[in-house]
Amino acid sequence: MSTFKAIVVVKKEDGQQAAIRDVDDSELMEGDVTVRVTHSTLNYKDALALGGRAPIVRRFPLIPGIDFAGEVEASGSADFAPGDVVVLTGWGAGETRHGGYAQRARWPAGQLVKLPQGMTAERAMAIGTAGLTAMLCVLALERHGVKPQDGPAVVTGAVGGVGSVAVALLARKGWKVIASTGRPQEADYLKNLGVSKIIPRGELAAAAKPLGKEAWVAGIDTVGSTTLANLCARTSYGGAIAACGLAGGMDLPASVAPFILRNVALLGVDSVQAPMALRQRAWERLAIDIDTGVLASMTTKIGLDQVITTAAELLAGKVRGRVVVEID
Fold first, then answer.
1. Most buried residue, 7, 148, 283, 306, by CB count within 10 Å?
2. How far apart are CA 49 and CA 55, in angstroms?
């Protein structure tokens, strides 16, 4: 038996506690592929789990981290061989199964994705769950049929992980991108990603009217609640909003008016249980659709020993873009 380093969350009488410790191989969960994890990420969901701010972790003890990438060490599946570079997102990682904040992971082959040729584990985690979610939103808008020549696209929570990648993907495809953010000091950062116009978060925070002035034909929303209601109310005829987040709340205080008077579509997007074929398509697109320089400009790297403190900074609104965790 061998041991490896991992962050482990345990249940205490006064709440959860997270710390780095040695973990034995025998503590790994069932699966036919063992991965040497080299990179993970720090997402908003991870920060909530580490801080015990929401019931993200649902079994204890547990290794958090909702995604990871690395090299296959051993495989009982014909689909993977030692040395293959793979990525794991969703499927309960960091919630009900040991996740990415560890030097080793064991998973069912059917939930791993072999990375496209030329994509490294580090780049895959610079994209991560947030970037995958953003790409799934773009694909949903494309399936609906909206195009850059139809009008602008709006992205809420634009400074965050999903928002930053969404802006970069849309801008590279020729969209005029409107960014909604509560952090006006990040204007230069957003413009470098490709934003054409910035609107304050408060503009979408007031109670939504049944219909508003048409301002965009497409949108990617990470906030939910009143913000999503306002997005729908201001979407042009035949447009669509892809909704993937609920940072502002799970409610939707909206009218049916945009849907029946303007033929607006509300497209729900999930990355946790997305079908494998869709995941593979998204990663193939991410390998070519996101500029490596732009991706680097939105990415910060930290070590495993910095994850817990950086998570607190993320919850305090002091982190922007993507955070890659260098595990190995």
1. 7
2. 7
Left, alpha or beta for 230 (phi > 0: left; psi -120 to 50: alpha)? alpha
Hey, what CATH topology would domain 129-268 get? Rossmann fold (3.40.50)
> Alpha-carbon distance 129 to 126, whole Å?
9
Q: How many CB atoms lie within 10 A of CB 112?
A: 27
Per-domain residue ranges of the chain: 3-114+298-326, 129-268
- The per-residue DSSP string of 43-58 comes to -HHHHHHHHT-SS---
- pLDDT for 52 equals 83
DSSP line for 79-114: T--TT-EEEEE-TTBTTTB--SSBSEEEE-GGG-EE
Rg from Cα positions in the chain: 20
Read off the pTM. Answer: 0.93
User: Is there a common fold for 3-114+298-326 and 129-268?
Assistant: no
How crowded is the C-beta side of 15, counted as CA atoms within 13 Å?
10
pLDDT digits (tens, 9 = 90+) for 225-249: 999 999 999 999 999 999 999 989 9
